[in-house]
Amino acid sequence: MWIFSRYFIETFVFLNKHFLRNPCELIVLDNFITSGDKGELPETKNIAFVEHDIIKPFYPERPVDFILHAAGIASPFYYRKYPLETLAVATTGLQNALELAQKSPGSRLLFFSSSEIYGDPDSKYVPTQESYRGNVSCIGPRACYDSKTDILTENGWVPFSELSKGIRVATLNSVGKVEYYIPDEYINYEHNGDMIHFWSDRLDLNVTPDHNLYVKDKSNKFRFIKAGGIKYGKSWRVPSGVYFSGGKEIKWKKFDKNLSRLRSDLRKVNMDDWLEFLGYYISEGCVYIRKTKEKRDGTRFVRKNDNRPGLKEYNISRCYILISQVKPEGRKKIASCLNRININYMDSDHHQFRICSKFLVDLLSPLGKAKDKYIPREYMCLSLRQSKILFDALVLGDGTIKKGKNGRKGGNIIYYTKSKRLADDVQELALRVGYAACISKSTRGLYHVNIRKSGYTKLSNIQSGKYSGRVYCVNVKNHVICVRRNGKAVWCGNCYDESKRLGETLIDIFHQQYGVHATIVRPFNIYGPGMLKTDYRVLPNFGARIKEGKSLQIYGTGNQTRTFCYITDAIRGFLQVLVSGVPGEPYNIGNPSPEISMVDLAYEIGKILGKEVKFDIVEYPDSYPADEPNRRCPDITKAARQVGYEPSIPLQMGLKRFFDWVEEAYK
After folding, report:
1. How distant is the alpha carbon of residue 407 from its chain centre?
2. What is the pLDDT of residues 111-124, one digit of tens each?
3. Which of 50, 294, 437, 450 is most buried, most CB within 10 Å of its CB?
4. In the predicted model, what is the mean pLDDT of residues 260-281?
5. Where are the alpha helices (DSSP H) in 304-438?
6. Are 411 and 403 in contact (CB under 8 A)?
7. How is the chain split into domains, by residue range?
8. Torsion angle in degrees (nearest 10) through CA of 433, 439, 443, 445
9. Is 664 helix (H, G, I), strand (E, B) or coil?
């Protein structure tokens, strides 16, 4: 974005010379990766030029007041030529800038994002507002997971290949809280190429090299980092357990009237007590129905050896709930729970509780036998406190608490079950109450849910290999999702692989967590004098070919539309957002009219130049990304209302200025 930088420099040179009593001092950083050389830079004592790559930290001699991060690569040709640099400058480079702002109290940072983050919006979202989440192409290389990866949803664990549209998925926001959102995009394509495999006893990820991992570095700061850029995995840790918040707190468990008529005193029970009972039953309980024949004298049952004439014999089904527990401490807890719910039981067997209740049998039978048991979804969205009640009761039944290093209890927990579905549910419940959890399977077919304290897992082992098959991901708000592979669950980045989108995520994190005053601008097709002949965007392309006497080349169909904003209008908008923008908010900066097709743009240029401009319709070159948007037009209502932005240079005037400059500058 050298055009922005040069115009900012010229703007402040002019302000220092003519208006400002106390001149602004500028430090300009650039590595000149796209311009090739420094060119002619204005000489002034108030501006220092430093050749520096901002993916490396920069330490000025004193705190700064304003930081403008305009170092992105905007030209499609160049961001395909320098893909890793494009990603790094808007992620690592931006994080360095945000950390500098954090160390400079009272400073403000402006991040130059892009209208590209909207992708190819549906016509009903054009002009496009900042609230639009985007419709990004999923064709071509994307950051994805392999086919063995599951994702955590509101319905539990689901293989990526079976994820249905409209289902909310678990995401981690910038302050470490779990939120559920419907994905904005579903990615599913055939991948034949490299994959990066990270694995340990607690971690298993197999992702494309450009996948964004959400990691904690040695300085305990979170950042996104590309899988293919990690060489020493032990330096990075991924979150493996966080606390879920915002669940429902329910006071009473109410039963269906058709069931509760069998026990009028159990039409509702305290939810805490019911959750505890349910945990005991799921872990150690079963339904037992004993079929027998019994004799009856009128309305009275009589003994089997009663052979009086006239007695009738009936087929009887005795319905029992059996809950096993041999540990005295556990038996006391179960008995106390049953007494609170007012459930009659027998415990004379010294190893189990026997409850004779058709009501409970009808209620609990749908939960299945040992190999089919599960936790109903209605109990997987409760508050942290109530989720912990259910979790503790499950562990008392089929869990083993290992001893810690000091020989006392408090170490890891292993939960055993024959049911794959229950293992999945227990793992999810463990995550919900703040633990980390992995699932393994023994040679005897028993599932082990290994539960440990929440924390972070090192990227211990790394291996690159070839892969041929489908890969999957989603594009969702917050951009961090909960995934697992081979039973090992962690929080990881989603398919939010455009560098500018990642940059906006960093802005949100630093604003929310550290109070950094940072705002975002999304420029829409800015143009003007200073654009390089080798920029390869439409107006420099047209200008270069006209200067050489060649026909214009219009890519695609020529019907795709854009709006164009002259550079001076854009600079004014950028400064208005820097000074008056709301921290953490994005602002569209562009000119909403006219929205013009590329064919009509060629005709308009011919009118301005006073001559016929010939053009050819050609295919997009390989240097362009797949599926360029059909329309791109900003809604600038927010910028106009909040910072007073209003462009003033009409397209005809701006094109006249640009092509007058091209005539002199393009040799």
Report:
1. 40
2. 999 887 787 787 88
3. 437
4. 81
5. 328-341, 358-364, 384-398, 420-432
6. yes
7. 2-121+500-665, 137-242+455-497
8. 60
9. helix
Rounded to two decimals, the pTM is: 0.62
Supply the DSSP symbol for 120.
S
Note every long-range contact of 148-151, with CB atoms under 8 Å and residues 24 or more positions apart, other chains counting: 148/206, 148/485, 148/486, 149/205, 149/206, 149/472, 149/483, 149/484, 149/485, 150/483, 150/484, 150/485, 151/474, 151/481, 151/482, 151/483
Q: Which helix (H) or strand (E) holds 580?
A: helix 567-580
Largest Cα separation within the chain, whole Å, is: 123
- In angstroms, the first-to-last Cα distance of the chain is 22
Average pLDDT score, the chain: 86
Sign of the CA dihedral running 421, 423, 428, 432: positive
Q: Write down the pLDDT at residue 317.
A: 76
pLDDT at 404 over 80: no
Over the stretch 199-244, which tens digit does the pLDDT of each residue have? 999 999 999 887 878 888 777 777 777 788 787 767 788 988 887 8
Say which amino acid occupies 645.
Answer: Y
Domain 137-242+455-497 has CATH 2.40.50.140: no
Are 629 and 119 in contact by the 8 Å Cβ rule? The answer is yes
Residue 30: name the closest of 55, 10, 11, 13 by CA: 55
Cα 414–chain centre separation: 30
Is-contact 317 291, C-beta < 8 A? yes
- pLDDT per position as a tens digit, 484-503: 999 999 999 865 445 677 78
d(CA 410, CA 600): 72
Name the CATH code of domain 2-121+500-665 (choices 1.10.8.640, 3.40.50.720, 3.90.930.12, 3.40.640.10). Answer: 3.40.50.720
Give the tokens for residue 533.
Answer: 């002949």
Render 32-88 in DSSP notation, one character per residue. -TTTSS-------TTEEEEE--TTS----SS--SEEEE------HHHHHHSHHHHHH
* Residue written as token pair 């293989």: 159
pLDDT band at 193 (very low <50, low <70, confident <90, very high): confident
Output the six-digit token pair for 35: 């311009």
Minimum mean pLDDT among 6-20, 89-103, 443-457, 582-596: which range?
6-20
Residue pLDDT, tens place only, 616-629: 998 766 555 545 67
DSSP string of 203-216, one letter each residue:
-EEEE-TT-EEEEE
**∠348-366-159 over CA atoms, to 5°?**
125
- Lowest average pLDDT, out of 112-121, 340-349, 407-416, 594-603, goes to 407-416
The sign of the dihedral angle between the CA atoms of 617, 620, 622, 624 is positive
